[in-house]
């Protein structure tokens, strides 16, 4: 049986710390929207690859970051972070914006607390869960890798 040296033990602790830190850094903000649902919305907004793709022109205005957040959406979620584009490009800030937006609007709109309602409101605004124009967005979201069974 081998004896673990002090250096080996220190290295093991470092590996565990870094592993935990990476999980925390990659986590979405917590709230009413599940982690799986957040990941699926991000994938849908970024063509299957959940990443910050910067800003793109979408229906006459810019959409930015992990969730392709428009400036008015960012305003509705309370203007978190250092600014709209900066927040949208920061995983934690952007996901907190989504969580705050849903906490504010889902109940007021009379929508259920499901990923479908969150995704459709994300796409179509506070009443998006009720608009037929957002059904296609929801159907496309479920086609993203790992999202077929999201609830």
Compose a concise summary of this entry.
With 151 residues, this protein is mainly α. The chain contains 7 helices and 2 strands, in the order H-H-E-E-H-H-H-H-H.
Structure description:
InterPro entries: Invert_lysozyme, Lysozyme-like_dom_sf. This is lysozyme. It catalyses: Hydrolysis of (1->4)-beta-linkages between N-acetylmuramic acid and N-acetyl-D-glucosamine residues in a peptidoglycan and between N-acetyl-D-glucosamine residues in chitodextrins. With 151 residues, the chain is mostly helical. The chain has one domain (30-142): Lysozyme, CATH 1.10.530.10. Helix content is 53%, strand content 5%. The protein has helices at residues 6-26, 35-45, 71-76, 84-88, 91-109, 115-124, 135-142, and strands at residues 55-58, 61-64. Helix 2 packs across helix 7 (135-142) and helix 5 crosses helix 6.
Determine the number of helices (DSSP H or I, runs of at least 4 residues): 7
Report the top-level CATH class: Mainly Alpha
Main β-sheet, spatial strand arrangement: 1-2
- The counted number of beta strands is 2
CATH architecture label name: Orthogonal Bundle
Number of domains: 1
Instruction: Identify low-pLDDT runs.
Output: 14-24
Q: Strand fraction band? A: 5-15%
Helix and strand string, N-terminal first?
Answer: HHEEHHHHH
Structural classification: mainly alpha
Rounded mean pLDDT score = 89
Biggest sheet overview: 2 strands, antiparallel
- Tell me the radius of gyration: 18 Å
- Calculate the terminal CA-CA distance, rounded to whole Å: 49 Å
Q: What fold name goes in the CATH topology slot?
A: Lysozyme
Helix content: 40-55%
The gross shape turns out to be globular
């Amino acid at each position: 049986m081998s004896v673990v040296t002090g250096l080996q033990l220190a290295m093991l602790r470092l590996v565990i710390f870094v592993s935990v830190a990476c999980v925390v850094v990659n986590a979405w903000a917590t709230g009413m929207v599940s982690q799986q649902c957040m990941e699926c919305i991000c994938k849908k907004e970024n063509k299957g690859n959940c990443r910050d793709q910067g800003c793109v022109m979408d229906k006459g205005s810019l959409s930015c970051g992990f969730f392709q957040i428009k400036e008015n959406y960012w305003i509705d979620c309370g203007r978190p972070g250092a600014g709209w584009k900066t927040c949208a490009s920061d995983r934690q800030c952007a996901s907190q914006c989504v969580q705050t937006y849903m906490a504010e609007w889902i109940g007021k709109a009379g929508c259920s607390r499901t990923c479908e309602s969150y995704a459709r409101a994300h796409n179509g605004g506070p009443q998006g869960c009720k608009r037929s124009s957002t059904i296609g967005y929801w159907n496309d979201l479920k086609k993203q890798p790992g999202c077929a069974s999201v609830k």
